[in-house]
Amino acid sequence: MLNFVPGDVLESRRGGVDVLRHLAQELAILERNGSIQIRRNIPEVGERIGHLLIFDGSLAAAFHQAEMLRFGIEALLEIESDASALDATMSLHEMTEASYIEAVSTNPTISLLNPDEDQRDEAWWTTVRTPVRRLEREERLPELKPSVGVPEALRRRSEARLRMQSGPVLQRGQAWLEHAIDPVHAFTFARTISKLDHSILIISRQSPPQMESNYDIDLKHYRWLSETQHERTLEPSLETIRRTVDEFADAHRKSILVIEGIEYLSGIHGEQRVIEMIRSIVDQTRVNGNVLLITSNLEAFSRQQRSRLEREFTGLESDQIQTWLLDIELLQEHPFFMDSDAEAEAAIMQHLQENVSDPILTPKLEIPTPVQQIPLPAEHRTQQVDDELRSKMRSWVNDSDEED
Q: What is the DSSP string of 124-165?
């Protein structure tokens, strides 16, 4: 093996389908350089060790040690094959820029980057890129043509009210599904709900420092889906997650639950088991009257499982979340924030029953007309057998027995 020493371990997992892709995407999202070590020990064959070096959001180098030493694309193919096996162990390591430059300069054949090529191969690893974050310019209101400058706060409130007339509203018992790579809108929405004195719980793959620095989330409302030891760590087992959700739902009413990272869970437990767990949480949410918001990159799921997942939810665009957040006072007018008075609701129902006629009229029961029975012809009628005929029949039977 080359003289390459991995850095500190960030995370460890066992092998499986798409696990390698998820680890590579995590480094890209975190905007960090790192290496992935894949180790597999096959009885009677020996140990197989591979390293992938990810630098500047791209898969930059690969080398693999088995019966022979492989570099570049050949090593990458061997690594991908080993990573899909369940008996493989994979670890995510830190990597400094100096370590990467030293490894590539000492062994140029391990590099996967070719500056002469204008187009890259359309394989899965070329999709590992840092998401582009940009601020989109707000569209101006077509009806608003002021002759003087309009204050920003007034413009945003006017825009929010115009959009709110045609968009969905927040109600109790809803289950929303947002397709997004960056969960910034969902986390901002949860933080806003928390400031309005409503209970929230965020279950996410984002690390605690990210939640505090990037999203300004109080860690007491957050659990980290990871196997790394931390006071806010939530073990990524379906039973532990479901138990945590049940405890939160039992302790809080009119609360909001945000889950991010179900694609990470599907890489561990499989898509079907994760969707079954999500389905049970959706049912619980609708019964308890809380709100569930799941934000996920749905492209990580197969077409069939993605369709099953979307059927359980109401789709929610990121733009709609931004619209809700344009005017917090208007958001508080949504039905979710209104206090329900049991006595008032009962009075309204009684008033409706007394003053509103039911459009569905109960049909009158019709008495069926009796059917006149027509007597059968004489030849089809049954008659009682008298004693004389019965004795004759017995004598006929006795005569036939004597002849035999």
A: GGGG--PPP--PPPPPPPTT---SSPPPHHHHHHHHHHHHHT
- 330-362 pLDDT per residue, tens: 888 888 888 765 555 566 556 655 654 443 334
* Count of CB atoms situated within 10 Å of the CB of 175: 22
Q: Rounded to an integer, what distance in angstroms lies between the CA atom of residue 6 and that of residue 306?
A: 36
Q: Is the dihedral of CA 255, 260, 266, 271 positive or negative?
A: positive
* Domains parsed from the chain with CATH numbers: 9-127 (no CATH), 156-338 (3.40.50.300)
H/E stretch holding 90 reads strand 89-94
* Distance from C-alpha of 208 to C-alpha of 214, rounded to nearest angstrom: 10
Tokens representing 174 are 């809803």
Q: In this structure, are residues 80 and 94 in contact, taking their beta carbons and an 8 Å threshold?
A: no
> In sequence order, which residues have a C-beta less than 8 Å from that of residue 365 and are 6 or more positions away?
none
- What pTM did the predictor assign? 0.48
CA 54/CA 10 separation, integer angstroms: 14
For 6-60, how does the pLDDT look when each residue is reduced to its tens digit (9 = 90+)? 888 888 888 887 888 888 887 777 778 889 999 988 888 888 999 988 888 788 8
